[in-house]
Write a structure and sequence with these properties.
This protein is about 25% helix and about 20% strand. The chain has helices at about 5-15, 30-40, 50-65, 85-95, 100-105, 210-220, 250-260, 320-330, 345-355, 355-370; strands at about 5, 20, 45, 70-75, 105-115, 125, 135-140, 155-160, 160-165, 180-185, 195-200, 230-235, 240-245, 265-270, 270-275, 275, 305, 385.
Length: about 400
């Protein structure tokens, strides 16, 4: 740890992290956090916004740190020993949770209260009316359903700004439906641990409730960029809805975690939509607008290939990179009929535009698992990401 911290350095320690106040050790470290959470954090039991951590910095600076060093926290003295301020900051750093630690926890309780009873099966997003609340906290899998109390870890998330929607083609009208819960929290960027959505999959057709957990674990072990996973018990208006799989959203945060500085590229999700299912078949087009056949209309709600990043940037949202990938996959411009797919020219073209080894890992894992609801059979429900080459994060196709 550094010897000193200014307010900017202090925020950098906690950005995209959260501190559950009840997990702090008793004493001054918790009392200061409680004061901040009551005054700036809407008493939601969690420190996570920039405003909260800036106020915590100010409290440490005014009430604990040496008054001679206003605006800077002294963490170590001249003898390189940790100061009282340093001990408190160290306790906050140890207690801070990031998204990795969220998915390391085995189970959560997600509780929705005062939800309008006429919207218990929403097939389109329904937004909370200001009275309903969404809360989430870590729980022991062995504990029964209950609100947080003695021995619990405390509330990680509580908000009145959220929406609910049932999801999944196979579970949309099943007795146990899957859910997409979008939320915003006050302050900062409105996220908790860099997240703005809980994807709760019902596992309705999996009696073991374990298949996806094992699949995600396998993907991670063989180096395939893939969503992280945990479990949650869901309650709505006091009624228990069952055990659900919590699946990490593939978004900008996901790209940053897996691709580092190469996180600014085009991310496409594949569906069955306005140009059919996402077969990656070649569609002839005007050379001046090669991407047009793969979307036709950016504003269509039913796009086959849906751009999830850069969709409002005219320099990158033309689908030209997708068109080039599809042209290369289909060997457009190479002579030789079907034999061209066995040629060195085809191999060189593919390896110049696609991470072939990563694709083969993905393909091998899906074949081993019997995964079919992706490119192989549907074909849809998969992602394509134009990451650019490692080390050249500004040089996208």
């Amino acid at each position: 740890m550094k010897k000193t911290l200014d307010k900017g350095d202090f925020w950098d320690l906690f950005k995209d992290k959260a501190i559950v106040v009840t997990e702090l050790p008793a004493g001054k470290v918790r009392k200061l956090a409680e004061r901040v959470n009551q005054s700036t954090g809407h008493a939601d039991a969690t420190l996570r916004s920039k405003a909260e951590f800036q106020e915590l910095f100010d409290l440490l600076d005014s009430e604990v740190d040496s008054p001679a060093d206003d605006g800077v926290l002294i963490l170590k003295d001249a003898a390189n020993k940790q100061t009282e301020t340093g001990k408190l900051v160290n306790a906050y750093v140890k207690a801070a949770k990031c998204k990795d630690e969220f998915f390391d926890r085995p189970m959560y309780m997600v509780m929705i209260e005062d939800w309008p009873p006429q919207h218990l099966t929403p097939e389109e997003p329904v937004y909370a009316d200001g009275r309903a609340t969404l809360s989430a906290w870590a729980t022991d899998p062995a504990l029964p359903i209950h609100l947080p109390g003695a021995g619990e870890q405390g509330v990680l998330l509580q908000t009145w700004d959220f929406s609910l929607k049932n999801s999944g083609n196979r579970t949309l009208r099943a007795p146990k439906r899957s859910w997409k819960i979008n939320f915003k929290v006050d302050g900062g960027d409105g996220k908790v641990l860099g997240m703005w959505r809980f994807n709760l999959k019902s596992m309705y057709n999996d009696a073991s409730q374990m298949r996806e957990a094992l699949a995600w674990h396998l993907f991670d072990q063989v180096g395939i960029p893939s969503s992280r996973h945990s479990y949650a018990k869901l309650g709505i208006n006091g009624a228990y809805r069952g055990l659900f799989s919590v699946i990490e959203q593939v978004d900008k945060g996901f790209l940053k975690d897996h691709f580092g500085k190469n996180d600014e590229g085009n991310l496409y999700k594949a569906y069955c939509g306005n140009v059919g299912c996402a077969t990656l078949e070649y569609k002839p087009s005007d050379p001046d607008d090669p991407g047009l056949p793969y979307y036709f209309n950016h504003n269509s709600p039913d796009l086959t290939y849906r751009l999830k990043t850069n969709d409002d940037d005219p320099e990158t949202n033309s689908y030209a990179d997708l068109a080039r990938l599809i042209e290369t996959l289909n060997g457009i411009g190479l002579a030789g009929g079907d034999a061209k797919f066995r040629s060195d020219a085809y191999r060189d073209g593919i390896e110049a535009i696609m991470n072939v080894r990563a694709f083969l890992r993905w393909a091998g894992a899906n074949l081993l698992l019997g995964g079919w609801d992706n490119y192989y059979a549907t074909p849809s429900n998969y992602y394509l990401y134009n990451s650019g080459r490692k080390g050249a994060h500004k040089a996208f196709m």
